[in-house]
Amino acid sequence: MSVSVKDVAATAGVSVGTVSNVLNQPERVAPATVDKVQRVIRELGFVRNDAARQLRAGRSRSIGLVVPDVGNPFFAEVARGAEERASAAGLTVLLGNSDENPQRQDAHIELFREQRVNGLLVTPVSDDLESLRALKDAGVPVIFVDREDPDHEFASVAVDDVEGGRLAVAHLLESGRRRIAFLAGPTSIHQVADRLQGARDAVAAVEGATLEVVERGGLTVLNGRSAGEEIVARAPHDRPDAVFAANDLLAVGVLQAFALGGGIRVPEDIALVGYDDIDFAAATVVPLTSVSQPARMLGWTAVDLLLKETSGDSEGHERAIRFQPELVVRDSSG
User: Rounded CA gap, 205 and 185, in Å?
Assistant: First the structure.
């Protein structure tokens, strides 16, 4: 049976209010009384219920973070950055995985609302923002992570993915490749659509260059392997001479398919570029050229924006922060 504040007060011979002051404002209580109450707390094994106390106060020391795929190392790094910054501010991060499913995203949002989180960091998976607007209208700040809000309704931290796509394909074109395949997940995902736009911009600037879009249902290694097997099955003259994958997981799947299924050499036969520059991009069988974005800094900066919003100090500060990507060249692109 759990020990209550009333049990501590009765054993110590003081009021419940005195115990509360010892726990929350000990400077208001005589030192001898503080010592007595703390001794009783230790003897009875009392543990304060911070969650209940915070809910009674209408606030908590937690923030919510909802990402599309916690299995993707990129989003793991985003969460790590958010947790580091939140911890420095005395906050904890509650993590939710939407699995790129709007219903799961909304379920996490409702749960975090019930938990009275101080704010929400989210990578929205659709253009339906009603649940986020409802949360914001209820006084809970919402920050977009890895996606911009074109209407500037929500503060955001993102990377210029159009520029990232352009960097990747311009690099392939500069190395002499002309038949480019863009391996996409669903192009309904804003980040994927932006990377595709950048790829198209780069191809349009080079005469004779072409861009083929190979769309898949997800951004996973298995989806990449499936696309790679499809390329392997083509006649050599029908294959692209370069592949730009919308993320590194897709690119790793392509590498697997090429190595296991058809003896396609990377980069001699087909050059390959990924996106995100996750930790093991440099450790693949053929080290992977990738577009790097500062994942941990995205999480860190998102929490900083949230702290400004919750403190009422957002006026005069940038509410849409955009980082620039960088191309990291390795062996897979020659």
Answer: 24
CB 214 within 8 A of CB 227: yes
- Read off the pTM: 0.81
Instruction: Please state, in angstroms and rounded to a whole number, the distance separating the CA atoms of residues 310 and 51.
Output: 19
Q: What is the pLDDT of residues 72-120, one digit of tens each?
A: 999 999 999 999 999 999 999 999 999 989 999 999 999 988 888 999 9
φ, ψ for residue 95, nearest 5 deg: -100, 135
Residue 165's SS3 state is: helix
Cα 34 to the chain's mean position, in Å?
45
Chain mean position to CA 144: 10
Rounding to the nearest 10 degrees, give the CA dihedral for residues 332, 249, 156, 64: -150
Cis peptide before 150 (omega within 30 of 0): no
Q: Which of 327, 221, 230, 324 is nearest to 273 (CA)?
A: 327
pLDDT (tens digit per residue) in 169-222: 999 999 999 999 999 988 889 999 999 999 999 999 999 999 999 999 999 999
Q: What string of DSSP letters covers 258-325? A: IIIII---TTTTSEEEEEE--GGGGGSSSPPEEEE--HHHHHHHHHHHHHHHHHT--TTS-SEEEEPP
Which residue do the tokens 């958010």 mark?
82
Helical residues (DSSP H) of 48-72, grouped into ranges: 50-56
User: Measured between alpha carbons, how far is residue 183 from residues 178, 225, 232, 240, 243 in Å?
Assistant: 16, 11, 14, 11, 7
Residue ranges of the alpha helices (H) in the chain? 5-12, 16-24, 31-44, 50-56, 73-88, 102-114, 130-137, 161-174, 190-204, 221-232, 248-257, 295-311
